[in-house]
Protein 1
Amino acid sequence: MLEINNLHAGIDGKEILKGLTLHVGTGEVHAIMGPNGSGKSTLANVLAGRPKYVATSGTVTYQGKDLLALPAEERAREGVFLAMQYPVEIPGVNNIYFLKAALNSVRKHQGQEELDAMEFLQLAREKMKLVELDEAFMNRSVNEGFSGGEKKRNEIFQMAVLDPKLAILDETDSGLDIDALRIVAEGVNALASEKHSVLVITHYQRLLKYLVPDFVHVLADGRIVKSGGKELAEELEQKGYEWIEEEVAAAR
Amino acid sequence: MTSVLEERFTAAPIHIDGEPERVRRIREQAAERFNILGWPTTRSEDWKYTSLASLANIDWKTDERLPDDKTFASPFGDKPVAELMFLNGALYANRATLANEHPGIRVMPIREAMESESFTQHFARYADYEKHALTALNTAMWRDGGFIEIAPGTVVEGFIHIFYLGSGAPDHRVVSHNRNLIVAGRGSQITVVESFFGKGTYFTNTVTEIVAGDGAVVDHYKFENESLDAFHIGTVQIHQERSSNVTSRTIATGGGLVRNEINAALTGEGASLSMEGLFVLSGKQHVDNHTVIDHVAPHCDSVELFKGILDENARGIFDGRIIVEPDAVKTNSRQTNKNLLLSESAVIDSKPSLEIHNDDVKCNHGSTIGQLDEEALFYLRARGIGAEEARNLLVYAFASEIVERMKVDVVRENAGRALFSRMPRRLPERRSESR
């Protein structure tokens, strides 16, 4: 599904990812954990194609395609979804209009028939139940006046509607109470299957209780320094990140 | 020596057969004022951003000939309850017969209304031809326009449309001076839409006086969608009496050189005014919005919101003044101007101002100038929406605050369509930079 090899990337001329290598197979759930400033969000933004994030060397291959050569909208149409850490408010753009336009541009690209208003509404209603969002949200402007938790649930709702092949969650769990956390995890679990891959980027282990990863990677100073199974997450929770940083320093 | 007026126009002032003595006298006074005032220049504070030199040097002609082609169709189809259509200042179509069957509604060409009591009482009382040269010119030279009178207590369902068409050519430059008077009686309710369309080079100089009687509710829309080679100078002068409620919307998308003056005087206690404007410009368009809200009486509210969207080499101006007179205590007034610049060579001058002459008021004003939100643009693209569509969505979203509040469905839809048709079709300067 996704192969990242020796990726160097940064912003404003500052290198943040310093040779990151990561392979995500189809149907796998990977968690990337790491301390603040380790490059977690940079990775998410480079993969989604956010302007100003520049890859200087290395490769990212997604379903056999050079992902970095595609503009952001093409990546989305190919099935890459980024649940943003800070979803932006867009006053004046209606939630339902926006999501229908997004879904239909993805479907069109993938050779599927576009949905009409009724079909879309039916799908949207079904997916809203999943994330326990009130239908009134649909007619409001994108994220405008939403609480932090509502914004994150809206991200998961969009993900559920767009049905991506690769979902990247950029600290979707931060700032959520336990109920919202469970809703987010259920939304992702509903998507995760043998055809979908998930990359969960998080600082904390909390989310991983509900959303069990196949692999856990520790990111430090722009590189993956340790990989393991789900038990690695628990170890990190108990011991913090310092022991890893010490291990890395000792290995140098 | 010829006067300024005679140098530019073949007849000054003009007279209409059978016009009352009072109108003759006003025309002569107005012509005299124009000759003294002359064309405004950028030396005057009110005109510092807009030069009329290119307009003043043209030998404008009036032309009442009707064209053979009937290509001009009303943008609202058969939706208006009454419609007057003027071509180059002369009546072209009158679809007001049905509405006039209602005893409380009078819609007619203004030249047929000169003997009426309302006309005699209100005409040229509010639009100031003593101080404003173009209003003086209009008052001396007007040939026709719309007259609307709504009797006390009459509620007009739907809207009345006054439709102005201009047509000219570089070798046949036509001027029309249009004059409207809208009188809404005590407790009446009316929606009036004025729209301006055309092709080629011509000059529209239009003045509308609106009188909102005690408790009257008036919604006024002005769509300025002139040809890109046209000159448009317009004044909407609103006079509000006690507890009247007026909404004024000015949507400017057309015209090469445009000046929109919208002025309101809140002269009766408890009157409220909402003054909204939207200008969407590209190419070399120059649109100067000039507003004055005069709080004369106590306990009045005014909310003003003007939004500008400027692309390419367009130039926009918002110059808005709110005056609170000494007696206008408990005034509540808010003035906002927001602008969106889509290109580095577009220019906006924003000059909101407050002039407060008593200390028992609540007033604030502000203006912003910004570019498209890059974060929002990325958000939309990251969901699969193409760069161009994302950009148009955000531009439309900026304007939607004004458009969505339009109460008449067909008017709102038409405004939305007009806006989309003016959306730039180019890609944003930056694409993905991940490599």
Protein 2
Amino acid sequence: MSELGRESELQLIIRSQNGDVGAFNELVLHYQQMIYNVILRMLGDRDTAADVTQDTFIAAFRGVQTFRGGTSFRAWLLRIASNQACDHWRRTHRHPVESLEIMTDEDEPHAADILSSLAATGQEGNPEESLLSQELQELIQQALEGLPLDQRVAVVLCDIQGLSYEEIAATTQTTMGTVRSRIARGRGRLRKYLYDHRELLPRSYRLHSDRE
Amino acid sequence: MTKQGDEHPTIEQLSAFLDKQLSSQEQAIVDAHLRDCQQCQQALAELRQTVALLHALPQVEVPRSFTLPARIAAVQEQPVHTNPVATPISQSKRARQNTLQRTIRVMSSLAAVLGLIFILSSFVTALPHGGSTSSSTSAGSASTNSPGANTHAISTPNQHPTAKTGVQPGGSPSVLPSKTLTPTPTSVPTQTVKQGTQTSTGPPGQPIPAVLDLSGPTGHLVIGSALLVLAILGFALARRR
């Protein structure tokens, strides 16, 4: 993501605002990987994610006039993407999954061993071993889809995309305090979900606690 | 938060602690608490593992390029930010339009049905003039009889009521009006039908032009066609909206 300099990005944005599709497409090529992954983690389905990603870039091009330099272009784009994803989710999920809604945040205190045994080690060994198993990926994805949308956006941006609290606040147009609280509650629910479904997980994940 | 370490930090504080997002003072308090509290250490470790799992999710390759076609520039304008505001208004507008459209369509189909019944009845009422006493309601015989009956009605309107009274009890005209009554709750058509039967059973009055004579088959044909044209216009209007 670093190959596009601050200056050249600004140039591309200005050209896009003047209707230059070619310039805008350079921005698309630069950001599509991240936008697609954010939407995919929010919605779960790859085909749907591709459609919503396309809609996001169309909406972004149509609205590029309204972009003002105040925030980062990335945050602006992410806001459109998360709005599109949320809209799609609300359209297709009229009756929200309540399995995670009813959970409390404070719960069983001894999930750490289980969770740490689930985490892939990643640091050593070959790249293949660093990947999570398919089952585990699916379980985490399910857990994400059980989160309320505001928490899901915050957790995806923070823990999967690695955005700072500041940038998440800019993206979601909320305060830092709100971001902090959404991330915490989202993580709390995910922790509970993963612990509750530990029996679905493969045994091959060896205990590897406190690796930081 | 108390400065003492006896009160557990909230999950929000632990989560923010993990990201080093607490103020330095808060950070110190939580840090001090964690040193002694097994339970919070456990909770923090769990949160850390959860974050590690999320972080370990692979980035998925894009299935295709999402670049836009050059022609998209032609459909420029309409900033996205106005969309959320515009949607509720346009939706209610569309809903109103839909009900209007539906009403027009229902009225049109009603007019079409009425028109067809009138046209058909013009053929069937012509039947008695053909002189068949056996009450045949088949459309085939009615249509073959109609041209002759038509000219008959135009040339001698006086003959028409007398012929009608003869067939009235068991004949087809008595069957048809009841048919026309069922699908149309509106008052106008039933009145015209009633008028038709009344004039036909009553004594022969002054001669009326065949086109305006509602009892006559030509009158029925004219009314029927008019209703059909109205229906077609209605459908055309409903489609254009």
